[in-house]
């Protein structure tokens, strides 16, 4: 078996779809969808960011970052770099230099099922990263193998190259491209209704218990 497995680059999501996805909150979709949500411990390093894009997948073993450095040369504008660490939770595979390179290639974010490093440099680069916290021990160029543009597993979710990825303060959601538009439109409509409800609650026009039906259930009324 070859040490390195590289698939063909996936089709990029249409810009109009990405624009819709960027308006959809993961927590809104979480009101009805039960799968595709990455483990909550894969969390944002930079606050208050919401991005969406095309999954560009990489998997790398243990403390070897060779395939990731290679993959950075193939990233495209609008990609979300999705990195499967194959169970390693000790070695940081993305730091300041890789964040700068990914941003220069046009990637909009990285999602790593493991730790990263160089928080200050990532902040300075302005490159959004979702990961399992920080670690000072890093990967090296050890030529052990890995994969690029292959199916990966991130926080309990199978991610296919070309999947739609939404990342925000609440977490990361992966959607098959064929389901992404419908979910985004439903989320946007739900958020608009929620904003109106919040306005009415703030103005004292309604009470949440009555509006939601909770009070009627408790009182039997």
Architecture overview:
The strands form 2 sheets. Strands 1, 2, 3, 4, 5, 6, 7, 10 and 11 form a 9-stranded mixed β-sheet that branches. A two-stranded antiparallel ribbon has the order 8-9. The model has no long low-confidence stretch (mean pLDDT 95). Helix 4 (96-105) packs parallel to helix 5 (119-125). The protein contains 8 helices and 11 strands. The protein is α/β, with parallel strands linked by helices and 221 residues long. Helix 3 links the parallel strand 3 and strand 4 (79-84). The termini are far apart. It comes from Roseomonas populi. This is Putative 4-hydroxy-4-methyl-2-oxoglutarate aldolase. Pfam families: RraA-like. Its cofactor is a divalent metal cation.
Salient structural properties:
two-stranded antiparallel ribbon; RraA/RraA-like_sf; RraA/RraA-like; 8 helices; Putative 4-hydroxy-4-methyl-2-oxoglutarate aldolase; 221 residues; alpha/beta; nine-stranded mixed β-sheet
């Amino acid at each position: 078996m070859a040490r390195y497995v590289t698939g063909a680059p996936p089709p990029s999501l249409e810009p109009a779809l990405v624009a819709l996805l960027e308006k959809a909150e993961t927590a809104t979709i979480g009101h009805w969808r039960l799968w595709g949500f990455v483990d909550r411990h894969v969390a944002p390093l930079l606050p208050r960011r919401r991005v969406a894009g095309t999954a560009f997948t990489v998997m790398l073993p243990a403390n070897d970052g060779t395939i990731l450095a290679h993959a950075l040369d193939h990233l495209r504008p609008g990609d979300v770099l999705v990195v499967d660490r194959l169970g390693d939770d000790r070695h940081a595979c993305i730091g300041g230099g890789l964040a700068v390179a990914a941003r220069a290639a046009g990637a909009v974010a990285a999602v790593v099922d493991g730790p990263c490093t160089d928080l200050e440099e990532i902040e300075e680069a302005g490159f959004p990263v979702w990961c399992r916290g920080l670690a000072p021990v890093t990967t090296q160029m050890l030529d052990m193998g890995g994969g690029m543009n292959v199916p990966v597993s991130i926080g309990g979710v199978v991610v296919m190259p070309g999947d739609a990825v939404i990342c925000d303060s609440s977490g990361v959601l992966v959607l098959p491209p064929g389901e992404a538009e419908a979910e985004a439109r439903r989320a946007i409509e739900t958020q608009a209704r929620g904003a109106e409800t919040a306005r009415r609650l703030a103005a004292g026009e309604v009470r949440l218990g009555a509006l939601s039906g909770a009070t009627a259930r408790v009182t039997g009324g």
